[in-house]
Amino acid sequence: MTIRTIEAGPSKRFFVEMLPRDISLEYAVLDLIDNSLDGAIRQRIDDIRLRRGEPYKGLHCKLSFSETEFQITDNCGGIPADRIDAALKLGRDDPNIDNDKPTIGMYGIGMKRSIFKISADSTVVSKSDTITTRVNYDETWMNPENPDWTLDLEETPPDGGELGVTISANKLWPNISRTFASQSFFDDLTRKISRYYAYVIAKGFKIFVNDKEIPALPVEFKLDDAVISPFYYEAVAEKVNVKVIVGLFRKLTKEDEREEAISSNDGLEAGDLKAGITVVCNDRVITYADTSSVTGWGMGNVPRYHPQFRSITGIIIFESDDARTLPVSTTKGALDLDDRAYVVGLNAAMEGIKTHTDYTNRTKGRESATDTPIQSAPKLSIAQVTQSLSSSARAVRHSNGKARKVVPTLPEIKRTAPIGRIAFSRDKAEIERVAELLGLSTSEKPGVVGEQVWTDLARKLGVID
Ligand SMILES: Nc1ncnc2c1ncn2[C@@H]1O[C@H](COP(=O)(O)OP(=O)(O)O)[C@@H](O)[C@H]1O
Ligand SMILES: [Mg+2]
């Protein structure tokens, strides 16, 4: 037998070339915003603990990008001096960093992966209260063939000015440059930021993209005390606070809208105000408006998502001072579905979804009667829903008092005589001609034209008035 010793350490190529492929450019940018936010959390931890209204007030993160440049800069305190070496390392040695604060970073890879993804040459400048550190990931260091991992840190005493981190790309990769140049990337990214950071923006954090301040677009629920109110659930599982709200955010869909949704894509399944369940960890949205089994659709006795359920919205919130206990993966793009706290949230979400899908079944064909109560109910934020429902939540049986919930209130409609549904097809030209003769627009929906013909004749025959 011989023993041969080999070098089994990591390869540069893996980190600079392969790892960045696991993350989309959008998520790579979001990861950098997360870091600014983690800085903001460290700065304002006392205000956050005391649950002050706007703990992040005055803190911001500004992004700018174009075909030729990328820069992100914040005023969130910089990387603490005693942390800078560890921050530049690939992967965390000490898992206990920040485990007493509700930050989202955890594996020590995000910043570097994003930098490698975006540019062949980048500069990071971190100004903390005790030191300014500047580091350059140049093309020589970034060369996958170069086995040297050392970096030179340029350290200078604080020079006044705002404390924070600035990351600049000095040489965008060609594919990244093309993406940054496209309007659709800008639109998608800003929409994601509005949704994903809605809860921190609402708490005073400001995010700018190419000088545009991004507004918060949080999930909201229709709530009007005795008329309509969402399903509400709160629990503590594995030291994680879990909260689930499932309710309605718009009037119920009627048959013609459902048919239209199935036959032609009207964009409502992908737009800004779409149905589905949003998952939030420590104020950061991980999954927005999901309609898959990840949030319970099509699981157990819950039906799969369908345009009939377009009015249903919900949120599952996990909060913990120790980010490692949150059910989220390193890319923050995926949830840890086997996590015990996640299962608690998921089961509650399924119960909430099921009550609402049952409701849409019960009201089928008579949806119009629910329009007024739903539409006239105000839309409330999570904080407002919590304030309104938390005090009336009752302990859930067999949960050892760890879970409490409120069942939803939904506008019940009077049972009318049994109803039937009429559906048939005709030549398009014939429908348009009839529409014209009835004084309707030729582009009117076939269902509306058919109903008008029926109503006119039924009236003439004296069946209805
Ligand atoms: N803009 C920033 N402000 C303050 N701290 C930052 C900033 N960017 C990165 N850091 C810190 O540097 C360290 C390394 O960041 P990163 O590579 O994203 O790993 P992770 O966030 O998973 O620990 C983290 O402690 C992170 O909070
Ligand atoms: Mg990070």
Can you put this structure into words, describing what you see?
It is a single chain. The chain has 465 residues and is α+β, with helices and mostly antiparallel strands. It folds into 3 domains: 202 residues, Heat Shock Protein 90 (2-Layer Sandwich); 186 residues, Ribosomal Protein S5, domain 2, CATH 3.30.230; 33 residues, no CATH class. Helix content is 32%, strand content 18%. The protein is built from 15 helices and 17 strands. It has an 8-stranded mixed sheet. A 7-stranded mixed sheet has the order 13-12-14-11-10-17-16, sandwiched between helices. Strands 9-15 form a two-stranded antiparallel ribbon. A hairpin with a 4-residue loop joins strand 3 and strand 4. Helix 2 packs antiparallel against helix 5 and helix 14 crosses helix 15. The longest helix has 23 residues. It is elongated. The model has no long low-confidence stretch (mean pLDDT 89). The site of magnesium ion has 6 residues, from helix 2 and helix 5.
Write the layout of secondary structure elements.
Elements: H1 12-18, H2 25-43, H3 45-49, E1 60-65, E2 70-74, H4 84-88, H5 110-118, E3 122-127, E4 132-137, H6 139-142, E5 153-156, E6 164-169, H7 174-181, H8 183-196, H9 198-201, E7 206-209, E8 212-213, E9 221-222, E10 231-237, E11 240-248, H10 255-263, E12 276-281, E13 284-290, E14 312-319, H11 340-362, H12 368-376, E15 379-380, H13 382-389, E16 394-395, E17 403-406, H14 428-437, H15 446-460
Parallel strand pairs: 1-7, 12-14
Antiparallel strand pairs: 1-2, 2-6, 3-4, 3-6, 4-5, 7-8, 9-15, 10-11, 10-17, 11-14, 12-13, 16-17
Helix pairs in contact: 2-5, 14-15
This protein binds adenosine-5'-diphosphate and magnesium ion (MG).
Adenosine-5'-diphosphate (ADP) is lined by residues 35-36, 38-39, 74, 76, 78-79, 83, 87, 92, 105-112, 165.
